[in-house]
Write a structure and sequence with these properties.
Number of domains: 1
CATH architecture: 3-Layer(aba) Sandwich
Shape: globular
Largest sheet: 4 strands, parallel
Helix content: 25-40%
CATH class: Alpha Beta
Order of helices and strands: HEHHEHEEHEEHEEHHH
CATH superfamily: NAD(P)-binding Rossmann-like Domain
Strand content: 5-15%
Radius of gyration: 19 Å
Bound molecules: NADP nicotinamide-adenine-dinucleotide phosphate
């Protein structure tokens, strides 16, 4: 989702872009083949390895589902840590600036607005993998960065479209009142990635909403925007579907003072992000 948006935004700014794919039928000159599950530690080291020379690498490919990482811990670690770091090291050795997309899940979600100076304390396999990938990328030195994201919303998300269709039919929806998000739009993510890439800004950066709200709050904004009866929102509990504790942290927001002082980018208000996304549904 994010990678596809980045391709168009970088191209619109005049960058030449390669977008890797693991699907053989999509490979062409600007879509080189790359399967992170099949990369060994020697990736890029063999004399015959023909890797493109690039200025910036954005590491967006991943197994991004908390449940997927929990259920397939070894296979997802190969992709999210070993394969990702294989690419990072090989491309850094060729002079590229490397940016890893990471997650608020490197923290346990017990407190809001974690600082970039706080030590990671992941509570799930996905978070542990991201924390290890972060450490490997940051160890590359001055020409490497990490951008931690909270929930990224964009108008094509199936959950939001499902809600919109159901509400349009005047039928009830059951958003969770006890599942929280501090969302950002994919537009803001793209803006920050472009900024970091352009400045070759080194270190850890955050991109999250200002405050955590519930999915029920999100549904109310949608119903209001669609002029639907708020009574159609019949909240449920994520405990009722036995969602694992690591997948329902109370807090996902991260502090963004560095981003504000460097680029004037502040954490967006929940309502502003939600309304902008809903308008595009
Ligand atoms: N979306 C969010 O809310 C969010 C929040 C925090 C952090 N992030 C991070 O942001 C990054 C992008 O997230 P996203 O939402 O855009 O994820 P996404 O839509 O699930 O896309 C992940 C991409 O990784 C590719 N991929 C999976 N396994 C691969 C492999 N073995 N080799 C090569 N490519 C592989 C997938 O390829 P196919 O298309 O072939 O399946 C897909 O294109 C991820 O690192 C994620 O952890 C996302």
């Amino acid at each position: 989702m994010i990678g596809a948006v980045l391709v168009t935004r970088f191209a619109a700014q005049g960058w030449s872009v390669y977008a890797t794919t693991r699907r053989r039928d999509r490979v062409d000159e600007t879509h080189p083949y790359l399967d992170l599950s099949a990369l060994g530690a020697s990736f890029g080291a063999a004399p015959g390895d023909d890797l493109p020379k690039v200025d910036v690498v954005v590491l967006a490919a991943a197994v991004a589902g908390i449940g997927d990482c929990e259920e397939n811990a070894d296979a997802s670690r190969q992709i999210n840590v070993d394969g990702t770091l294989g690419v990072a090291k090989a491309m850094a050795a060729r002079g590229a600036f490397v940016l890893l997309l990471s997650s608020d899940k490197v923290f346990d979600g017990a407190v809001p607005l974690r600082s970039r100076h706080d030590a990671p304390c992941p509570a799930c396999a996905y978070g542990r993998q991201k924390a290890d990938a972060e450490a490997g990328v940051l160890a590359l030195g001055q020409r490497a960065a990490v951008l931690r994201l909270s929930k990224v919303l964009e108008p094509n998300l199936p959950l939001l479209n499902g809600w919109a269709t159901t509400l349009a039919n005047e039928e009830p929806i059951t958003p969770f009142h006890d599942l929280y998000l501090a969302p950002v739009s994919v537009d803001l993510v793209a803006r920050m990635v472009l900024q970091i890439a352009t400045d070759r800004a080194q270190g850890i950066f955050h991109c999250t909403g200002a405050k955590d709200h519930s999915y029920e709050d999100l549904a109310h904004i949608l119903a209001e925007q669609m002029h639907r009866n708020p009574g159609l929102i019949q909240p449920g509990s994520c405990h009722s579907i036995n969602m694992p504790a690591a997948a329902r942290p109370r807090y996902t927001s991260l502090e963004m003072t560095e981003e504000q002082s460097r680029w004037g980018i502040t954490a967006p208000a929940f309502e502003a992000t939600a309304r902008a996304i809903m308008a595009g549904l």
